[in-house]
Amino acid sequence: MAVTSGRPEIRIGLVDGPVAMDHPDLVTENVRPISARAGAACTRPDSAACRHGTFVAGILTAKRTSSAPAICPQCTLLVRPIFPETVQRDGQLLTVDPRDLAEAIFECVEAGARILNLSAALVRTSPQGERQVEEALDHAARRGVVVVAAAGNEGSVGSSAITRHPGTIPVVAYDCQARPTGQSNLGASIGRRGLGAPGDQITSLGPQGQPATHGGTSAAAPFVSGAVALLWSVFPAATAARIRMAITQTSGRRRGSVVPPLLDAWGAYQAMQAT
Predict the structure, then answer these.
(1) Which domains does the chain have, with CATH numbers?
(2) pTM (2 decimals)?
């Protein structure tokens, strides 16, 4: 963050809830809907979907002078809401139908996103639904998009169609003692390709103007997405594979645990500088 505030041509696809576009701490000229049909703004600021989307957007693109300075305020945030504002449930990841998630991923990729930030749990999973999500993630990988996904907050060991995909960086929430939080999902694919990031008592934007404090893997994922966006802002000609390698392999050690290492953004920057 001391090196760059990001570049507008680095586009982050936010596949999440809608965003309180009138929030005074958002760099709103850099927050855009990907289509008029999907929209981007909240219609119900009290909904869980609006709170979720605004919170994550704040971590990524709030003003650096806000009470919760964002990671990449000069990057462009492409908002593709997938959660209905009728849902009021907080705490766990909000759920989405696999077909709706796959459609959102395709649309973000076609809109020019170079990074996708996903914080959703699949509902009514079936072999066909999982194939649709896998095909969308395959498409993102072919187009050189880095996909960052919250690992989930069920406190289980395993994977989903999202976290086990080879093109996805799953993110686990870490507490202030640099340990995974008890509710974070873990697993072989998460430990092998994922990262840990701050996810305990994180402060960001609330949709009605006041700061909000939450935790979980949804709060952790944008730390990784934002770090990727900063790296690409400094090294715009780098490939997705090079960026992914730099941010996930800073330790240089082979991974065999279900627990991923903690994000080392500065180590990733130094690795990019060295090459």
Answers:
(1) 11-274 (3.40.50.200)
(2) 0.95
Residues 145-166: pLDDT tens digits? 999 999 999 999 999 999 999 9
87-98 CB burial, b ≥16 within 10 A, e <16: eeeeeebbebbb
Which pLDDT does position 211 carry in this prediction? 92
| Euclidean distance between CA atoms 80 and 222, whole angstroms | 15
Closest CA to 234 of 75, 86, 120: 75
